[in-house]
Amino acid sequence: MPEERELVRQRASRGASSMVSAQFIARLLGIFLVVPMQNLIGDQGLGLYQLVYPLYTIMLTLSTAGFPLALSKTISNLNARGQYREASQTYAIVGRALLGFGVVAFVLMWFGGPYLLSWSVSSKALLAETVPAIHALAPALLILPLMSAQRGYLQGNLRLEPSAASQVVEQIVRVGVVLAGLLIAVHLGASRAIEAAIATFGGTAGAIGGFILLLAAVRKTRGLMVRKRRYLKTPSLHAGTVLRQLFIYALPVALGTLVLPLSQNIDNATVIRQLVAGGMSIGVATGQYGIYAGEALRLMQLPLSFATAIGASIMPAITEARTRGQHQEGRIRYIGALRMTAFITFPVAVTLAALATPLDIALFEHNTGAPVFAIAALISIFSALELVTTFILQGYDRFYQPVVHMAIGLAVKLVGNLMLVPILGIEGAAIASVVGYAASSWLNVGALGKATGQPVRIGSVAWRPAVAMLCTGLWMVLLERLFVPLEQALNAPDSRLLALVFLLVGIGIGGPLYLLAALWVRAIQPSEISRIPVAGRLLTRLAARLPHRR
Fold first, then answer.
1. Are 312 and 253 a contacting pair, CB within 8 Å?
2. Terminal-residue alpha carbon distance, the chain
3. What is the pLDDT of residues 69-94, one digit of tens each?
4. Would you call 107 helix, strand, or coil by DSSP?
């Protein structure tokens, strides 16, 4: 039915917009957190904090084993066939399994984390400082796997708003707990290890807040979906059969989601060692790594989070279209996802690159990270493309191709780290990431064309947002050129106030400039504009007044 198809499309698009908005707010809160955190504990403390998180991310990925995304795909498939009770029972089975996996991951993290981290941290003194941070973060593994099952169930039902809201709540609680704890710890003169532990404990505290919200949303959704077929007999699904079927989907999904933590662990294992081998002290090398991983890559996660939200919403939508035999509808959805990815990530990337110096000074009180920030802008574009195309390929049941491409990209990055870090320092690690993500994303795009039978022309999807990005980039580059001369004229080197003014002016004018240019060249479709949260109606009216461009 065309009406039903349009309703589903609107729900998926509205949910994707909610996810993107939530990711934007959550990542802004994350950046808001890392700035005072770096100011309070310094680059070395931030580097210590960053050493623990990749290990935790791998543990979390392994404890969920890809089941949340596989669950969303399966739930979407069952709902498309009207099997609502089977969908509800499948969620219950997977939830219990993930809770068990979380207990195992918690034990491994708590007792085995220091040993596992010793593989990449050569200094025993530095390793000892990570133990409190590991223990503070480990309890989150008891909660987050179950939360991921809840999100998978909601996303499979194309109800993304509660999942989106939970991310915001999770970050609000995390920011509040970390800032309050660090202020007290610094006042009491706590050690760097204790400060890092307080910073990581925020992940556990935030998980509790998000879990409570998701629990209420899942109960409501399960009740609504079951009542649709209340006259049907409750199915008797065997847990082993359900988990075995989902594991076929889940394993490659889990491997695909490991790309970022594995990339970070490659950095853990190589960057500090290479910098020390080049003559740096362990303290300076840890500080440099904190700038790269804790500052530049943290900022990069802002556009990357948008890609995660878009990808998580598009995979079940493509699965549903294919289950119904609506192949053209599937293509419309994934092209729209690629276009939305470019539309959102491009302006963030150009801001990171063009305003790197004032951004670094305003947030972190130095300009040593500016070159890395500029390179991180390229990382964000290629990693976003790699991530979204991975989700799309999984929607087309091409599970292992993205995993192979990821492995190739990681191998390229490893070789790049070993070759470039000794020569270029921390910038070499950033360049190696650009090349690695570019390789894996290029392979994904080629595989997507083969999977759908129609070549994917990224240029035709991305050129309109690129034109709008160019307009914004020119403005920001011209503004950034005035920064250093104005610093000298005012005799205010590395002035945070001046840098903040430049940022506000750059983004305050650059943001509307990008939107106007994007509307002018039709970088986003009118139907998509109307579903943008908060500003959608205003932008729709503005787009209608602009001359039409094909």
1. no
2. 30
3. 778 778 877 777 777 777 778 888 88
4. helix
